[in-house]
C-alpha cells in the first residue's frame, strides 16, 4: 500500500524567510504532484514531477524529486503573505493506474 | 489541459436523503476519479469510474452508499446516498489518468 507523508504538518513563517516542505512516499512512483488549496476552494495544481532529479520553479516556489530516496521537496523562498494556504503532495504509484495518494497536507501561515 | 466542471457547487441536505453530483469534462477521458475531503482532512479516493464498466471502489467505500455512473467519456455522476452528518465533505472529481487537474468541488453539508 502506497503511503505518503508530509512534514511539517503546520508551518508558521515570517515574511521574507525560506523554508522547505518534505514529502516522503513508500513505493516506487510514476509521478508526483504538488497542489495548493485555499480555504473552501478546490485544488490548484502547482507542479508535476515526472523523473528523478526533476526540478521545477514558479515564482517563490521550487519543487524537486529524488525517486531513489522517494522524496520530494517544496522550497519556499522569501515567503509572502499570499503564500498562506494548505499544500499537498500526491503520488501516482506505478501500479495505481492514475489514482493519486495524498499526503496529509501542510498548513502554511506567513506572518508579516 | 481539460476543463472540469461540477454541479452543484454546494448544497445543504437533510439526513437520510441522497444527492447526485455531476462532473463534466470538456474532452474525452478514459478515467475519472472521485475524491472526498472531510473537514480539515486530506483527500481520499472514493472510486475510479471507467466508461463501459463498473466503477472500482477503494477500501471503505461501497457502491450502495456511493453509486457512480459513467455514461460517456466526458461525464460522470456520484450519488451520496442515505446521507448522515458524517458525509459532510467536499467532493471532487478528477479526469484522466495523467491529468493533474481537479474540478471545483461540491461542498456538501448534511444536517
Explain the overall architecture.
- The complex is a heterodimer of chains A (112) and B (111).
- Chain A is mostly beta strands and 112 residues long.
- In chain A, strands 2, 4, 5, 9, 10 and 11 form a six-stranded mixed β-sheet that branches. In chain A, strands 1-3-8-7-6 form a five-stranded antiparallel β-sheet, with no helix packed on it.
- In chain A, a hairpin with a 4-residue loop joins strand 7 and strand 8 (71-76).
- The model of chain A has no long low-confidence stretch (mean pLDDT 93).
- Chain A is 0% helix and 58% strand.
- Chain B has 111 residues and is mainly beta.
- Chain B has strands at residues 4-7, 10-13, 19-25, 31-37, 43-50, 56-57, 68-72, 75-80, 89-95, 106-110.
- In chain B, the strands form two sheets. Chain B has a six-stranded mixed β-sheet with strand order 2-10-9-4-5-6, with no helix packed on it. In chain B, strands 1-3-8-7 form a four-stranded antiparallel β-sheet, with no helix packed on it.
- The N and C termini of chain B lie far apart (37 Å).
- The model of chain B has no long low-confidence stretch (mean pLDDT 93).
Amino acid at each position: 500500500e502506497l503511503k505518503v507523508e508530509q512534514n511539517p504538518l503546520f508551518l508558521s513563517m515570517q515574511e521574507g524567510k525560506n523554508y522547505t516542505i518534505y514529502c516522503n512516499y513508500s513505493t516506487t512512483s510514476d509521478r508526483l504532484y504538488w497542489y495548493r488549496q485555499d480555504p473552501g476552494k478546490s485544488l490548484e495544481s502547482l507542479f508535476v514531477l515526472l523523473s528523478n532529479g526533476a526540478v521545477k520553479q514558479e515564482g517563490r516556489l521550487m519543487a524537486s524529486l529524488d525517486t531513489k530516496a522517494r522524496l520530494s521537496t517544496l522550497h519556499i523562498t522569501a515567503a509572502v503573505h499570499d503564500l498562506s494556504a494548505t499544500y499537498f503532495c500526491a503520488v501516482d504509484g506505478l501500479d495505481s493506474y492514475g489514482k493519486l495518494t495524498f499526503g496529509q497536507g501542510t498548513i502554511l501561515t506567513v506572518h508579516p | 489541459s481539460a476543463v472540469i466542471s461540477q454541479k452543484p457547487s454546494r448544497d445543504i441536505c437533510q439526513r437520510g436523503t441522497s444527492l447526485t453530483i455531476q462532473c463534466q469534462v470538456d474532452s474525452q477521458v478514459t478515467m475519472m476519479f472521485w475524491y472526498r475531503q472531510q473537514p480539515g482532512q486530506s483527500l481520499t479516493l472514493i472510486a475510479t469510474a471507467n466508461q463501459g464498466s463498473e466503477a472500482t471502489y477503494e477500501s471503505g467505500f461501497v457502491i450502495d452508499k456511493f453509486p457512480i455512473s459513467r455514461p460517456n467519456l466526458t461525464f460522470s455522476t456520484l450519488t451520496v446516498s442515505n446521507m448522515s452528518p458524517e458525509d459532510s465533505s467536499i467532493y471532487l472529481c478528477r479526469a484522466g489518468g495523467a491529468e493533474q487537474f481537479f474540478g471545483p468541488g461540491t461542498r456538501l453539508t448534511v444536517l
